[in-house]
Amino acid sequence: MTGEACEQGNDAFGWRDHWLARLAKLTDSSMGHSGEMQVCEGFEPKDMGVAVWGHQEGFVDPVVVQAQLDEFRTQPNYFASLSSYFRIQAEQDGVCLARTDFIHDDDWYGSTDHLVVQSAFGVEHIMYCHRSIVGGRRDEVSGVILNRALGMREYSLRDRAIVREAHDALTPFIGRSLARFHEPSPHELAPRVRQVLACLLEGDSDKQIAVRLDLSRYTVNQYTKRIFKHFGTSGRAELLSRWIRRDWSLDFTWVGATEGVALRPPAIERNHSTAARAHPPFRDTGSRRTRIETIEADRGS
Fold it and tell me: What is the secondary structure of 196-222 as a DSSP string?
């Protein structure tokens, strides 16, 4: 699972979508969230970006998900159980717990978490797992929260072990092979600009890109400038060096990817992302050059 995530590592939403979907199905979960949080004073959680799984298979309405995320971003204690979990996680980094491990039923069934949040999703059982991000700030964690629908069985000790092992294997790569949410992503570029980016990474000159994609040299030059600005690089060499240094895949699954449902706040800050997006994982095993040529053939047909 970690290896598959690294294949999409240059897009924080893309790799988390894929990893979360695999983990949710492995644990027979109906819904899941995977992202980054800052654990502030008093163990108050602050969203730094999240991928959501569940709406892709019709379990939950993305509008409901967005509404809950908006509440959480304006009222961090909206999910009070998270603060309770983080008090334990501070002493046991990476611990994976079901709700019943640390919140008694008498407290849970009268809580806002249950009556408002979980009821809106139609879920009952919950599992939490968060670990500090290596190389990040001391208060920054990566985590996953999984849910099972009403009427399903409780999470077992085996389920907890699977989630902890999967997350333990993943976290050392976050900020390295796996991009973080505040980092620029190819998915944020327009489709034609993504095609130019792929050509640049394959070593094509402006002239070669213009011929290959049937664009003017001027358009290629403008798109190239947009790419350098987007990734904060000064030129081709630095762009390619960053790709290689981060060990990002050259499969370019993002070239022909289309946007799915977007779950994001009105404004996104590049240096401290609070965006949330969920789109179906895009899988393509074709060659890089064939993929681009296929896109062009479709465009001309």
Answer: HHHHHHTT--HHHHHHHHT--HHHHHH
Sign, CA dihedral 184-188-189-195, equals positive
3 state SS of 142: strand
Distance CA 295, CA 281 (A): 18
133 has a pLDDT exceeding 70:
yes
Buried b (16+ CB within 10 A) or exposed e, 204-243: bebeebbebbebeeebbeebbeebbebbebeebeebbeeb
Residues in contact with 157: Cβ distance below 8 Å, sequence separation at least 6, in sequence order: none
Query: What pLDDT digit, counting tens, does each position of 177-225 carry?
Result: 898 988 888 878 898 999 999 999 888 999 999 999 999 999 999 999 9
d(CA 55, CA 61): 6
